[in-house]
Amino acid sequence: MSADPLREDAALRLAFRDGQRWALSEVYRVYFPVAVNVATRGFGNFRGFWNPADRDDAVQTIFAAAFEEKCRLSYNGIDGYPAFLRGIGHNVIRRMLERDTRFRRTDGQPELEFAAPDSAEEVLADAQLCRLAAEFRGTVKDPPEPEILDRYFVQAQAEEGIAVDLGLTRYRVRKVIALLDKRMRRFMKAHGLE
User: Fold this and answer.
1) pTM for the complete prediction?
2) For the chain, which domains are there?
3) Residue 49: CB partners within 8 Å, gap ≥ 6?
């Protein structure tokens, strides 16, 4: 088999674009070293993941993104697929690193702070925030969004556990979490909280 079968084999490329399981499996098998290379050696100022769990997570997330329909259809078959996959990998890892700095947790759990409010205004602001959060929860209706909203944002459960329990990929759970976070921020901003 050639070094770049997706570019050189039209039948494989068509099956890949259609999302046929055998083609996805073959692409995963052949191009797995490319994704591992991106996750371990890094790029730019990023020097690669040292933690094996982070490396494995990055590799799987790269392939999950590469196997989405929009991404499969955007590969033109002219350029080499390793370069295309590296580009996807760079974008995926950048998003992972940005998320890590925005949502830093310890042991997968949020840090809890219990401080007495300093003023009556803080008590009212907290009450308003709770009321708006309850209103926002009422607007989330499409499955699996309500379940993910409750389990991730309220119960502080880990993405992996949510994915396993709901029968979804971790990548899909992450996308729903990001969408809910964005919608919640917009909702709060529209109601005067930033």
Assistant:
1) 0.54
2) 5-102 (1.10.1740), 120-190 (1.10.10)
3) 39, 40, 55, 58
